[in-house]
């Protein structure tokens, strides 16, 4: 009995660091659930009450998301759920009056992956529903940013789908390092990259200094050792403002 006890203790001592590391990775991977009102600009885009993309409130009339999230559906069927961190309950539901993908959007390369949803009526602002200002330039390399998004069940097998909004702290990468890591897999002329902690979803806002610096534009899979890819907004400010409902 004593020998068995010491054998178990020895095995635990050997495996504990590895097990602890895996548990720690599990807590980091996929980010963490946010509380209601923490990111009041984030909205869930739904089709027939089913979540499909994340969007960002930029004023009382418009939600910014990717062109893919706009062009791939009929805006008449899009529901915008604001003021909640749960895409299945709570909040206030709005309908889209128009959907405007960028006219240079290329679904094959995902270039100019910027789109707007015009809201029927005005979005009512309160502590859980607020707009966010656009960043006038891209963040530089090696800077701390926050990625906010809902996760779809078909995005990753490694990260369970969550009907609650999630966030994760990331670090921006230089264009050189991003291209080197991607190894020519994708073109990123109008994109920038961050580190990848396994939180994957389309249209989610990337926050830098309390401004909207980019929106997630995933190309290919996630948790593959590749960087997260975000659509830059700095070159589209005039287009966004010109179409901002």
From TrEMBL:
Q: Which GO terms describe its biological process?
A: proteolysis
InterPro entries given in the database record? Peptidase_S1, Peptidase_S1_PA, Peptidase_S1_PA_chymotrypsin, Trypsin_dom
Taken from the record, one Pfam family name reads: Trypsin
Keywords from the UniProt entry: Disulfide bond, Hydrolase, Protease, Serine protease, Signal
Q: In what residue span(s) does the Peptidase S1 domain sit?
A: 28-245
Signal sequence, renumbered to the chain: 1-20
Protein name per its UniProtKB record:
Peptidase S1 domain-containing protein
GO molecular function list: serine-type endopeptidase activity
Which SUPFAM superfamilies does the UniProt record give? Answer: Trypsin-like serine proteases
Taxonomic source organism: Photinus pyralis
